[in-house]
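USER: If only I could read backbone structure tokens as easily as an amino acid sequence. It would mean a lot if you studied the pair and described how this chain folds. Here is the record:
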Amino acid sequence: MASGAGGTVTHFGVGSGSSGATELDFFGTVTPNLSVVAGVTPKLSTATKVSNVTPDGMSDAAATAFLTLFFNNTAWANIGNAGGLLPSSVAGSLYLSLHVGSPGEGGLQNTNEVSYS
């Protein structure tokens, strides 16, 4: 995370790297928007709603199953064979990034990433 004056967070991202020009796997909006100021670590509360706003052509059930596999490492039933898409046998790492604008479909974790010190 680069240092800077902050900004208003409108989007979040989840990617495979801690920050920088690394793969962004999932992104969406943050409601209400989050004001970030220099010297204060941004935090999401239980009142914060995050959602995927990009039309991806997936049904709600498919999107929920994918995200449950992605975030909770839970099998996605009935895809392929009877076992479905199986979870990983070892834990991986995901990183949350906050953005002042949409990172877009081809964006990286540092695309429109909020900066603070």
